[in-house]
Design a protein that fits this description.
heterotrimer, A alpha+beta (about 950), B mainly beta (about 80), C alpha+beta (about 160), B: Folate-binding fold, 6 strands, about 10% helix, C: about 160 residues, alpha+beta, five-stranded antiparallel beta sheet, globular
């Protein structure tokens, strides 16, 4: 039995001892302990060093409001810094380490900061370490950075898994103390009750009362669950801690729950306030309610000889609780001039002296409390030896959630506390959280005594009464300014034990009523939430879902290297033995240009458009015209945004009088669908047309190269004619292949070779690719990927994604002739703005390096060779670049001011970020087969 | 935030895509010239505090375009109708 | 004739991929609702419900689970049997598992046996409906593997199976 563990009592399981270590030293606790209660049982009172001054700190509270007892829990990749020992459930083998001290907790060299305290007053970083200026980056900042901060994180990937879920209910009860339990019991419909502790009971358990848990069968009770935020629309955010209380366990560590509730009841209780006096931060100075909690819940006496300091009757029961636990009470210091009948009678029953109208001037001790210096009415000082000071400045309703939607709490003078103001829709507040039943007989006391020692207001960020006075002197009196200037309330505890004291002190300093000062705005989360929990399962490979093409498994088997295009995985190149990406790409391009290749182009958006007004609708959304497109033909289409810039391009095939098949770029498929729906539902609802995505319905395989038709003729059924006459360039037909399979064949070319795209229902895509490879073997067919596709379209001067970047117009791309002059279409009006048709705009050209060898880089800027390299002389940029196997030298597409008028000119291609600087010749953008003869073969 | 799609019922914000002001109407003059009416339609917006009529697209749901009357100060949604 | 190919998905006590079947999108043209009902011999649901093998898919749109007759001039018909992949989620824990992926209320009162929803499963667009005790999630074919993986993870708490 360790020194401070009581012989009996507490809700711990004394039959289950647990081993744990703190700072490498081994200790024993029991199942049901928190790390804090187990440390106190072992008389470990020094648990950390404060943030700025590195003062020795102990355990202040017994709950999630704890500002001091922050430890690093576990080790390795599981290390969790800034864990409050007061809520960390003890498990066998738990390892905890203190933070913010070097070399040890006992002997921390940075406690020298205490001696340098005047330098570190509030706002010190605005006034110090400024001169000489160069020292800031080299010396001051790195040193301050090393000295500052609390815990350190593991710097390793989080090995735990996390989960998310959604829950719907009629009533969400937040807080499982007596008030919350009663509210859940009385509620009807689907009821959820959440409490951050492992068991229901709240403050009543801490006060040693029995709690009635009957009548909750209809309630979904979630323990170890913190409701951390209130959001619009009756939505609440909660974190359920699934395995933090276990040494290890399979499955997710925590679960993020989005709760959608028709109504909610906030029963979050209240948080006790410290009293502010000299050296009130010494280990052994604790909140009175916490002392009762350690005795009643955990069977631990936090000290042997105590002084009680209070200004209200709520703390009076501490006298009896301590006495029953065998703690000697040196005196009850009651700030109220006459004390109160309750305190007087309880003290008398325990045989304890009451010092009425007195305050603690300062606590005494080095690394722990050894005594309390009492200031009597009249000013006389008397010292009481003790190893425990139990203080109570009253209770503050835990009303943070009421103000997440901007409700402002208001000050209630009668109970000297802030109570909820305007509530979120659907929320009601019960119990101590509403201010009911707290602070009986309270006499506000915001600063006790006048000792020359530091009197702490915000323990975690080391903010003292001096800092508040300084803030007031410097004009930072508004409560939001006070917060930012002093940093009070900004630490991981968000000032739960500090805010009210600070507001009251500032109000007193400025001579204004507290009601006028108000609180700072509270925002989610109420207590810290791991980033991993917010991510849930969406991390690593599961960050976003992968979309796979019908030929994906086949391509994988061929050893293809894949690239992400939006959510899709596309084969980028198919390396053979010994090939890198460049060699593979060159071979694939040569294969397409000289023989035949195949490429899965399923990913391009395919939208089926049907209806009496289908053609009219296309006229509205595309810049060019569609009504005159014959059935069985496809046409290139340019789609603008309403501001006149190019949005997307694609081909659209007419499959019937009232049916078209539109294609979009892969990246813009969803965006174009949204745009079509907007045009139809919002702008032109009178048009009778319907559309739907068929991207996944059809596997689409491009077959390109001089032998393309010969390959296809072998798989197309004999009754189908795909000769040059029957299916000319840009033709589209339905047919059957491989013995009756319905398919569609489009004669489209992105590569510039004789090319087709063959579409089959997606389940046959895999088999089709294998069949084409088999049939095409005689013609040396090979698959090609997006890399080769990209090289070939650059050789053909086709604008693609890099040129359609949202900043280019049809004229810029050399497609001004596509804009119809005869009809309204999206973007028509603003595309005609003089600035968008100015020939001085960067316009599409080709570039080739003057030395025939230097690679040009996309992103390079273009200047005249004799011009200074300043932004004013910038004449354009390189949009796409590649090595051309077909021409045997590097090529690029670029946007150059007045480009088409400058063919033959030499231009400087300038890339300072990557040390590129070379000369190039401006040429027409179509490098290969400008007449298109190969397309029409 | 939750939006009550008139077709699908109330759904979370992640299912919707925001477009902007629903009160601006596309000029019906055919767009032959870039007039002030067109520039106003594409670029200029009032920025009032309080109730606002705006267009949302139920992207992950029924693909309906909806006019949502929403108070931009309080986030209260007052009305949702099919565009 | 070419063979159909479906990538293999690991067996799971609560999940299975539904065999491919003919499915069709139907979207009615202006003012032809009555003609459509007559041609199909059913009153198509105008709220998120299914009836007679027709699932509501938005205003004036449905997903048919079998081939419709000729609807020329009445509605746009598009084959979707290859475009959509259905995964059935079965077992007593189906609802609890789906709560980890679907942001909609699956309680019996909120999602009765003939209910239909178009929503997200994690990041993947799905149509959801019930088939007896099973819940069916249908996504675009290209997402099938990713959806199955997400479902396996969501079911892990109940199935005891390791992640695929």
């Amino acid at each position: 039995m360790s020194a401070h563990r009581l012989q009996s009592g507490g809700l711990i399981d004394r039959a289950r001892p647990l081993n744990f270590t703190f700072d490498g030293k081994a200790y024993l606790g029991f199942a049901g302990d928190t790390l804090a209660s187990a440390l106190l049982a072992n008389n470990v009172t020094l648990v950390g060093r404060s943030f700025k001054y590195h003062r020795p700190r102990g355990i202040l509270s017994a709950g999630s409001e704890e500002p001091n007892a922050l430890v690093e829990l576990r080790g390795g990749a599981w290390t969790e810094p800034n864990t409050r020992a007061t809520v960390a459930e003890l498990f066998d083998g738990l390892q905890a380490t203190s933070q913010n001290r070097f070399p040890s907790l006992r002997y921390d060299v940075l406690s020298i900061n205490s001696a340098l305290a005047p330098l570190f007053a509030a706002g010190f970083y605005y006034k110090t370490f400024m001169w000489p200026a160069s020292f800031w980056e080299k010396l001051y900042e790195p040193v301050i950075r090393r000295a500052a901060g609390l815990g350190r994180h593991a710097k390793l990937p989080d090995p735990d898994g996390y989960e998310k879920s959604t829950m719907f209910c009629d009533v969400l009860v937040i807080g499982g103390g007596e008030a919350g339990i009663a509210a859940a019991r009385a509620a009807r419909g689907r009821v959820v009750l959440c409490d951050e502790a492992p068991v229901l009971g709240g403050q009543a358990l801490s006060d040693g009362k029995a709690v009635d848990l009957a009548g909750l069968e209809h309630v979904t009770v979630l323990n170890r669950t913190t409701v951390f935020g209130v959001y619009d629309g009756g939505t609440y955010g909660a974190v359920e801690r699934l395995t933090d209380h276990l040494p290890s366990a399979p499955g997710p560590r925590q679960r993020l729950i989005r709760i959608v509730a028709k109504n909610s009841v906030l029963a979050s209780g209240a948080i006790e306030r410290p009293l502010v006096f000299g050296d009130n931060d010494l280990p052994g100075v604790m909140l009175a309610g916490a002392v009762r909690a350690y005795i009643n819940r955990y069977g631990v006496a936090p000290g042997k000889r105590a002084v009680i300091f209070l200004n209200n009757d709520d703390a009076a029961c501490t006298i009896a609780t301590m006495a029953a636990a065998g703690i000697a009470i040196a005196g009850v210091i009651d700030a109220r001039p006459q004390s109160s009948p309750l305190v007087q009678s309880l003290a008398a029953a325990a045989g304890v002296a009451v010092f009425a109208g007195a305050v603690i001037n300062r606590a005494r001790g080095g690394r722990a409390v050894t005594g309390a210096e009492i200031m009597q009415p009249g000013g006389a000082l008397v010292s009481l030896p003790c190893d425990l000071i139990a203080m109570s400045g009253g209770w503050s309703p835990a009303l943070h959630l009421t103000s997440h939607l901007d409700g402002k709490p208001h000050w209630d003078d009668a109970i000297a506390a802030f109570v909820p103001g305007r509530l979120p829709p659907g929320m009601s507040v019960v119990g101590a959280a509403s201010g009911a039943g707290i602070n009986a007989g309270i006499m506000p006391l915001w600063h006790a005594g006048n000792a020359k020692a530091k009197a702490f207001v915000d323990f975690q960020n080391d903010v003292t009464t001096t800092d508040i006075t300084l803030a007031k002197q410097e004009g930072f009196v508004a409560v939001e300014h006070l917060k930012r200037y002093t940093t009070l309330g900004m630490a991981t505890d968000q000032g739960k034990t500090a805010n009210v004291n600070a507001i009251a002190l500032m109000a007193a300093a400025t001579g204004k009523p507290i009601a006028q000062a108000g609180t700072t705005r509270f925002r989610p989360p109420y207590t810290p939430v791991s980033i991993g929990t917010l991510a849930g399962p969406h991390r690593g490979a599961a960050f976003k879902p992968a979309r796979l093409t019908p030929s994906h498994e086949w391509a994988q088997a061929q050893g293809a290297v894949f690239i992400e295009t939006g959510l899709w995985l596309r084969a980028q190149y198919f390396p053979r033995a010994g090939e890198d990406w460049r060699a593979a790409t060159i071979r694939e391009v040569n294969t397409v240009r000289n023989a035949v290749g195949l490429c899965d182009v399923t990913t391009l958006g395919k939208i089926d458009i049907q209806g009496p007004d289908a053609a009219k609708f296309l006229d509205c959304v595309y810049a060019n015209s569609w009504s005159n497109l014959p059935v069985g033909r496809a046409r290139y289409g340019l789609m603008l945004r309403e501001d006149g810039f190019v949005m997307d391009d694609g081909t659209c095939a007419r499959l019937g009088e009232t049916q078209f098949l539109m294609t979009t770029t892969t990246a813009n498929a969803a965006k174009v669908m949204q745009h079509l729906e907007f045009c139809h539902q919002v702008i032109w609802p009178g048009l009778d047309v319907r559309f739907g995505s068929v991207t996944d319905q059809w596997a689409q395989i491009a077959v390109a190269g001089p032998h393309a038709r010969r390959v296809l003729e072998k798989i197309v059924d004999s009754d189908c004619d795909i000769s040059n006459e029957a299916l000319p360039y840009m033709g589209a037909m339905a047919l059957t292949i491989c013995g009756g399979l319905a398919a569609r064949l489009f004669r489209l070319s992105f590569s510039g070779e004789l090319a087709y795209e063959l579409a089959v229902p997606a389940r046959f895509g895999h088999a089709l690719v294998r069949q084409l490879m088999k049939t095409g073997a005689d013609f040396n067919i090979a698959p090609y990927g997006t890399e080769a596709l990209g090289v070939m379209r650059i050789e053909k001067g086709h604008p693609a994604g890099p040129e359609l970047n949202g900043q280019t117009t049809a004229h810029d791309l050399g497609m001004g002739r596509l804009l119809s002059g005869k009809k309204d279409f999206i973007g028509r009006a603003l595309a005609a703005r003089p600035a968008l048709t100015d020939p001085a705009r960067p316009t599409l050209v080709g570039l080739k390096p003057v030395d025939g060898a230097t690679m040009l880089r996309a992103g390079s800027h273009l200047l005249r060779p004799d011009a200074a390299t300043v932004a004013a002389n910038d004449e354009g940029w390189v949009s796409s670049a590649a090595f051309s196997p077909t021409l045997g030298h590097p090529i690029a597409l670029a946007m150059l001011a007045r480009g088409p008028a400058r063919h033959g000119e030499t231009i400087r291609v300038y890339d300072p970020v990557r040390n590129g600087d070379t000369l190039a010749q401006v040429v027409p953008p179509v490098f290969y087969d400008p007449s298109g003869s190969r397309l029409h073969a | 935030m939750r939006i009550a799609c008139p077709h699908c019922g109330e759904r979370g914000l992640e299912e919707f895509s925001y477009h902007g002001d629903a009160t601006v109407k596309r000029p019906t003059d055919g767009g032959a010239a870039p007039t002030q009416a067109w520039t106003d339609y594409v670029y200029f917006r009032d920025n009032a505090n309080g109730p606002h009529e705006e267009l949302w697209y139920h992207a992950a749901g029924c693909h309906a375009w909806l006019v949502v009357e929403r108070n931009v100060a309080t986030h209260d949604i007052l009305r949702v109708t099919q565009a | 004739m070419l063979e159909a190919f479906e990538p293999a998905l690991p067996a799971h006590p609560m999940l299975h991929r539904l065999p491919a079947r003919p499915m069709f999108s139907i979207a009615v043209f202006h003012g032809r609702e009555a003609a459509l009902n007559e041609a199909l011999g059913v009153t198509l649901p105008v709220t998120p419900r299914q009836a007679g093998g027709f699932l509501w898919a938005g205003p004036g749109a449905w997903l048919a689970l079998h081939p419709p007759p000729d609807l020329s001039g009445i509605a746009a018909v598009t084959a979707q049997g290859d475009g959509l992949c259905g995964i059935a989620v079965t077992g007593a824990d189906a609802r609890a598992a789906l709560a980890k992926l679907l942001p909609i209320d699956l309680h019996e009162d909120a999602f009765p046996p003939d209910a239909v929803a178009i929503t997200l499963a994690g990041h993947i667009g799905v149509r959801v409906w019930r088939d007896g005790d099973a819940f069916v999630l249908a996504c675009f074919r290209s997402f099938a593997g990713a959806l199955y993986e997400a479902l396996v993870l969501a079911c892990q708490e109940f199935s005891g199976m390791p992640r695929s």
